[in-house]
Every structure is written in structure tokens, then in C-alpha cells.
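PROTEIN DESIGN WORKSHEET
SECTION A - STRUCTURE
LENGTH: 309
C-ALPHA CELLS:
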């Protein structure tokens, strides 16, 4: 006998009940193993200085209802984050600026501008590929995709030489143009898939009513792919925010982002794991918050076209 959901054509509820406890526990365990290094970095950023490298190591900010012994538990503190901008480099000296505010601004400015430029250019290009395909359209799309096939280490030398020749080394313009170019392929392919899922009927009706092609794009097509724009922006931001090789090779101190700052050597007292931990947690916070802010659009964007009417 058909269930109520099958009778009315409803989809079964997803979750533990459908997947089963065995599969759920396996997925949770594998996810914990992969996330464990990140979790330890986060815990290190909140540890008191005396417990950063303590033996036995402190592993958790809570005892988990008595499951973890007290010697492995630490009391979280926010004192480490107070040294992100001003830090005592040598014992007994006054706190000195770390330059973190400059690096943070560089990362935010370079990533935001380059991703937005790639989104604007890539959205227009993807609309053209979707609605006005040329002869050999697939070939052109494949050529665009090849810009992301080569590892960064393969193309970094000619890029450095070109930057030095035209005077873009160490500038905001150079690194923004570079990131925009390398984000274009991802943006075009992502947005084209969203435009391909839209119905042509509404657009044709608007053209019959006298709407120009620009109005059809801005007033009809673009509002329907807001979810795709949000998903593409977040993924592009994450790729740009975490990029290291291009930033390290083509920028100087005034334009270097946080990804380069994180690998800076501790010249005065070796590696300060608390300081490194706070910098890494601060760096991770921006893409995480960006993803959370547009979470509903990301889910809609990734599922667009999965169910056709």
C-alpha cells in the first residue's frame, strides 16, 4: 500500500531516519577526523598561555559531562585576541603594532573587489554563452576552463616577469587583475549553469511586450539567479581569501594579504602558537561568516535545477 507521501507525490523526509544510524555515525566520525586539525587550531587560540604546550595536553574547553578528565580540560580566554593588533615582541618591552590591521584590510579589499569584478564580467559572459551561443560554443567554454587546469606553480614565473615588465609588481591593481582573471572561468561556468535552467517563456513574453534585451537581463533573468550569484560569490571569496602563491610572489608589504602574513617567521622568540592560532581563527572567520550570511541562497543556488517542473 502506498504511503501518504507517495500518494501525494511528496518527497520522503531526509535525515538520520532515512540514512540510518550506522551511516550517520560513520559520516560523523570521518567528518570529525578531517575537522580535527581545524578544531585544535581553534582551541589553541582560546587557551591560556600556560596551557598552549602543556603536558599532558589540554584538549577540550569542556569535560563533556564528565567524559573527559579534568587534566585535559582548559578554561577558554579571549586574552590572546587582544594581542592580534598589538603584541609584546620581547619580554619587558612595550607592545608593538603587529600590522594585522593592514594585512586584514588588504585581504578584504583584494578579495572583495576581485570577486565582484569577476562576478560582473562572468555573469555577463555566462548570459551570452547561455542565450546567444556561438558556433563552437563548447570549444570556447573549454578554452576558458583551461585557465584553471594548470597548477599555479606552472604559470607563476611568466606572471612575475609580465608584472615586472608593466610595473604591476607589489600593487593592488596587479593582484586584483590577476585574481579576477583566475576567478572568471569558475564564475562563467557556475553562472551559465544557472542561466541554462531558466525558462525562455517569460523572457519571450517580455520581448513581445517591448522589453529590450538589457531589461530582460536585468529585470527578469538576474533576479531569478540571485541564489547562484550568492553561491558563486562565496566560493570565489573562499578561493581568493585562501590563495597564497600569487599573493606571495606578486605583492609587497603594502599590499600583502593575511595568507602571506600567516607564514611570517617569528624572528624574536620562535613560534608563538597562541599568536598563530588567533591569526588563523581570525582569518577563517570572514569566509565562515560570509557563508552563514548567505546560507539560504547557497543551498538554493546549489539545488537550482535539481527538480524540474
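SECTION B - SEQUENCE
RESIDUE ASSIGNMENT:
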Amino acid at each position: 500500500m502506498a504511503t501518504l507521501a507517495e500518494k501525494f507525490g511528496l518527497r520522503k523526509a531526509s535525515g538520520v531516519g532515512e540514512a540510518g544510524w550506522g551511516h550517520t555515525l560513520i559520516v560523523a566520525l570521518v567528518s570529525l577526523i578531517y575537522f580535527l586539525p581545524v578544531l585544535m587550531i581553534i582551541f589553541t587560540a582560546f587557551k591560556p598561555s600556560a596551557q598552549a604546550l602543556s603536558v599532558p595536553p589540554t584538549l577540550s574547553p569542556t569535560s563533556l559531562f564528565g567524559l573527559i578528565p579534568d587534566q585535559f580540560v582548559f578554561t577558554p580566554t579571549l586574552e590572546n585576541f587582544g594581542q592580534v593588533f598589538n603584541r609584546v615582541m620581547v619580554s619587558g618591552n612595550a607592545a608593538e603594532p603587529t600590522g594585522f590591521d593592514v594585512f586584514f584590510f588588504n585581504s578584504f579589499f583584494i578579495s572583495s573587489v576581485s570577486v565582484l569584478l569577476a562576478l560582473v564580467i562572468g555573469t555577463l559572459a555566462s548570459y551570452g554563452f547561455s542565450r546567444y551561443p556561438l558556433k563552437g560554443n563548447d570549444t570556447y567554454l573549454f578554452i576558458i576552463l583551461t585557465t584553471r587546469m594548470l597548477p599555479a606553480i606552472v604559470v607563476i614565473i611568466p606572471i612575475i616577469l609580465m608584472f615586472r615588465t608593466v610595473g604591476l609588481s607589489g600593487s593592488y591593481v596587479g593582484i586584483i587583475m590577476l585574481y579576477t582573471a583566475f576567478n572568471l572561468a569558475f564564475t562563467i561556468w557556475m553562472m551559465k549553469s544557472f542561466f541554462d535552467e531558466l525558462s525562455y517563456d517569460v523572457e519571450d513574453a517580455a520581448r513581445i511586450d517591448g522589453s529590450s534585451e538589457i531589461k530582460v537581463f536585468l529585470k527578469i533573468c538576474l533576479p531569478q539567479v540571485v541564489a547562484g550569484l550568492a553561491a558563486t560569490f562565496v566560493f570565489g571569496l573562499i578561493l581568493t581569501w585562501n590563495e597564497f602563491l600569487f599573493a606571495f610572489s606578486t605583492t609587497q608589504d603594502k599590499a600583502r594579504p593575511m595568507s602571506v602574513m600567516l607564514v611570517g617567521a617569528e624572528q624574536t622568540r620562535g613560534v608563538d602558537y597562541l599568536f598563530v592560532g588567533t591569526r588563523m581563527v581570525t582569518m577563517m572567520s570572514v569566509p565562515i561568516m560570509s557563508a552563514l550570511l548567505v546560507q539560504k541562497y547557497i543551498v538554493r543556488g546549489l539545488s537550482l535545477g535539481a527538480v524540474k517542473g
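SECTION C - NOTES
The two ends are 26 Å apart (CA to CA).
Residues 1-11, 305-309 have pLDDT under 50 and may be disordered.
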